[in-house]
Specification:
The chain is mainly β and about 700 residues long. The longest helix is centred in the N-terminal third of the chain and has 8 residues, at about 90-95. β19 (about 235-240) and β20 form a beta hairpin. The strands form ten sheets. It has a 17-stranded antiparallel β-sheet that branches. Strands 1-55-54-53-51 form a five-stranded antiparallel β-sheet, with no helix packed on it. A five-stranded mixed β-sheet has the order 10-25-24-23-22, with no helix packed on it.
Length: about 700
């Protein structure tokens, strides 16, 4: 166990030779958050070919809102794509899970709105470019970097009339007609075709477009003079499937008028940040979804979007698109690897799954790899000691639950890591410690000896039999708990995920969390050592996320907060809560001890906050210096696994640098454990005196 450390960050010594312990664990200030759009998909994304197969539109797609099922803009109109899951019952899900033909399916509907009689040569202008860029998995467009914009305008769509689209925070899409003096608003007509059952006007003057997938509502316009903002009475007029606008008599003769409706519908959105991670460069990664394709986004250390990637819609599952593994970030490179949670094509193609790899720029590195064996992969980790990936899941056709891959995502071996001989022997969560040993949460429909158990498996082979196997004691994990978590957070009637964020491990203990109760376990034999209820009002599985540091500070996700405890070997003591910029249920928590920061993901947000500073590597610094001839050395006193590697900002790779002029020098120390602890020192050498500051990065 390490001690929590709090130091002042600067030491000034007036001597030519210094031999001392430098203050490690210097606190750094972090703090940024997203709004309700963690994947930044609520923008108008240019179509560079990647959207061509996404929708049936009357003409070529120019831009799209890549949120939920999608909204597509053509030269003279808009197409709404709506998905509906049918025959979604537990019985049909069991058929899917066991590789049988299922009647459950997703039916897609399209509603086309055309600007009737509009200018075919109207110019589409976009403005307010959003941060980052957008990448996709469509074949042939893997290297596309599409731009996104916050505003889209059809210029001179009708004589003297522009139409402007924006995406409001409250959801839906908002369009405004800017009607210049003497322009004829009566010329504007919106004609609806496609999968429309009926169009009607309700008592509030809204237009209701009824479809099998749900209603699209065009809310009654709010109109006003552009300069004075004085209200102008306005309304929709409906004739069969065509909608037009009505203003007060002569209103349009006075000055420019803004007609401002708002459209909502059942196309959903992509606002669930279910998994978060980071790399060695301080970048933050988030993955998640709502009904629709899975997404991965990368942010800079200060919270600026780098890329937002969207998986091919049919990649994960043709029924509900919820089936994918927790992505794994190769921290030394920023590469992201994702597996398919459940691959199902119907008999006989039931014993394969896919994996994909994104490079640091968010582009796919090669095609999807099809991997034979178990057809479920829910969690993955990368072992630095073996330089291999381990994908854990299960399957309905084979009693295997682990896939070993190389870093090109080529399959090396499939195996069963425990003694069960039955199918449906799934691994819901897995973490590895500094030795590479794996700790797993099991769920099984077929083997009560495995269901709702924790187990340990030894590196490097993770061979059966398990080192130990113990029941979790969590009531929420009893029975078929694999379906419960995502059903709750998505309010869905049919999903399947064994992907829980329920475990964390450090040098001393294994910790677990069911969304209400935190437990500590002895790593050697699986003995439960202590527990605490976070909040008696919580229901288990409504939230997730747990992370522990080397000082046994434990962070767990709550409702609008993260609970922080310290475990002393027998008892959890409350330390604090973190609530700033946490605006909903928390689904994942990651601790980046290299920067003493906590990364939190949940319903509608990502937040980065300061964490308690905790040493992992204790380092002694020796520094001497003159104006022209300086020397600096670092030595690891305790912590981590030797041998250690060194990288100075000069490019040197030894523990000491010498014959260097005065200036600032930074060294990154990396240990040889299977999860790679890191530590960063920053030293400033000046002539006649030495000024040393140190930033810890375990």
């Amino acid at each position: 166990m390490r001690n929590n450390q709090f130091y002042s960050g600067l030491v000034i010594i007036s001597s030519l030779l210094l031999l001392s312990f430098i203050a490690k664990g210097q606190s750094q200030k972090h703090g940024w958050t997203t709004s309700s759009d963690p994947f930044k998909v609520n923008v108008f994304v240019e179509n560079l070919g990647q959207f061509n197969t996404w929708a049936k539109t009357p003409s070529a797609i120019k831009y799209a809102i890549n949120s939920g099922s999608g909204i597509f803009f053509t030269q003279q109109g808009v197409t709404f794509k709506l998905n509906k899951v049918v025959n979604a019952s537990e019985k049909e899900f069991k058929k899917i899970e066991h590789g049988e033909k299922s009647n459950a399916k997703t039916v897609t509907y399209f509603v086309n709105m055309q600007w009737e009689g509009s200018n075919p040569n109207a110019t589409i202008e976009v403005s307010e470019q959003s941060e980052g860029y957008y990448t996709f998995g469509e074949k042939g467009y893997e290297n596309v970097k599409a731009k996104g914009y916050k505003k889209l305008v059809y210029k001179n769509l009708y004589p003297g009339i522009d139409v402007e689209y924006v995406i409001p925070e409250k959801g839906g899409i908002k369009y405004s007609l800017l009607v210049q003096p003497n322009a004829d608003l009566r010329a504007v007509k919106m004609s609806y075709t496609g999968d429309v059952e009926k169009i009607k006007t309700d008592d509030e003057g809204n237009i209701i477009i009824k479809t099998e997938a749900g209603d699209i509502t065009d809310h009654a316009p709010q109109s006003f003079y552009e300069s004075s903002r004085t209200t102008v009475a306005s309304a929709f007029e409906l004739k069969e499937n065509t909608v037009s606008f009505k203003l007060e008599a002569k209103s349009s003769k006075l000055e420019a008028i803004v007609v401002d409706p708002w459209t909502t519908g059942p196309w959903g959105g992509a606002n669930i940040a279910l998994n978060v991670d980071y790399d060695d460069f301080g970048n933050v990664f988030v993955s998640g979804y709502r009904p629709g394709p899975h997404r991965i986004a990368k942010y800079t250390p200060t919270g600026t979007l780098v890329y937002s990637y969207t998986t091919v819609a049919t990649w994960e599952h043709t029924i509900v698109n919820y089936f994918y593994s927790r992505p794994t970030v190769l921290r030394h490179s920023g590469t992201v690897i994702k597996g398919e949670g459940l691959h199902y094509e119907g008999p006989p193609n039931t014993t394969t799954m896919q994996a994909l790899k994104l490079n640091s720029a968010g582009a796919m590195s090669g095609p999807y790899n099809l991997i034979s064996g178990n057809n479920e992969m829910w969690n993955m980790f990368y072992n630095n000691c073996t330089n291999k990936l381990y994908g854990f899941g299960g399957g309905t056709q084979e009693a295997t639950n682990c896939q070993i891959l190389d870093t090109t995502i080529a399959a090396i071996q499939k195996k069963n890591v425990n003694t069960s001989t039955k199918i449906d022997n799934d691994i819901a969560d897995v973490v590895q410690d500094v030795n590479g040993d794996a700790y797993m949460l099991l769920t099984s429909n077929s083997d009560a000896n495995m269901n709702n158990h924790l187990m340990k498996s030894l590196a490097p082979n993770y061979d059966a039999p398990e080192t130990w196997l113990v029941p979790t004691g969590y009531a929420a994990f009893s029975g078929n708990f694999e379906n419960k978590f995502l059903n709750i957070i998505l309010n869905a009637t049919i999903t399947s995920s064994c992907k829980f964020n329920a475990l964390s491990v450090n040098t001393d203990y294994l910790f677990s969390y069911d969304g209400k109760t935190v437990k500590a376990w002895r790593k050697a034999d699986g003995i439960e050592l202590g527990s605490i209820v976070t909040d008696a009002s919580y229901n288990a599985l409504e939230r997730m996320g747990i992370a522990a540091d080397e000082c046994n500070n434990v962070y767990v996700g709550g409702k609008n907060k993260v609970h922080v405890y310290n475990f002393n070997g027998t008892t959890f003591n409350t330390v604090s809560t973190i609530a700033t910029n946490i605006s909903g249920e928390v689904y994942d928590v990651r601790l980046d001890q290299s920067l003493s920061r906590l990364i939190v993901g949940g319903k509608g947000f990502i937040t980065v906050a300061d964490a308690i500073v905790c040493e992992q590597l204790v380092v002694k610094d020796t520094v001497s210096g003159t104006c022209t001839n300086g020397m600096a050395c670092v030595e690891v006193i305790s912590g981590g696994t030797s041998p250690y590697s060194y990288l100075w900002n000069t490019g040197a790779t030894t523990s000491c640098i010498s014959n260097v002029p005065s200036g600032i020098y930074t060294v990154t120390i990396t240990d040889n454990s299977c999860i790679k602890y890191k530590h960063i020192d920053t030293l400033t050498i000046t002539g006649g005196s030495v000024i040393i500051s140190a930033v810890a990065a375990p």
